[in-house]
Amino acid sequence: MAGDMNLLKQARIMQERIQEVQRELKERIEEGSAGGGVVKAYVNGQGEIMGVKISEEVVDPDDIETLEELVAAAFKNAVEKAKELEAKEMQKATGGLSLPGMNF
Q: pTM (2 decimals)?
């Protein structure tokens, strides 16, 4: 019985750590870039889009397609970084324990 109570206590502590990490991830911003940095995209640690910055030099009304590709690539890069950050922080919070239904 004492073992079960200890296990429940540990699970509750881990759940609190995970919730804290999720709150922190919402505040952390990852930057992705494309075209050598002429397009930068920003997402938080939960993958939510926070903004985009585009250098004037890449804005060409006759070539919108390239700009669209650069924006998409920058966001893809930022989201990949956010996923890596989330996985790393969750790994710390769970002590490396793999939990069913948790994809990090």
A: 0.78
CATH superfamily of 2-94: Nucleoid-associated protein YbaB-like domain (3.30.1310.10)
Contacts 24+ apart (CB under 8 A), 12-20: 14/93, 14/94, 14/95, 14/97, 17/93, 17/94, 18/90, 18/93, 18/94, 20/93
Q: What is the pLDDT of residues 30-42, one digit of tens each?
A: 999 999 999 999 9
Judge whether 58 and 41 are in contact, CB under 8 Å: no
Report the amino acid identity of residue 58. V
Tens of pLDDT, residue by residue over 73-101, are: 999 999 999 999 999 998 888 877 665 55
Burial class from Cβ neighbours inside 10 Å (0-12, 13-18, 19+) for residue 82 reads buried
User: DSSP readout, 61-92?
Assistant: TT-HHHHHHHHHHHHHHHHHHHHHHHHHHHHH
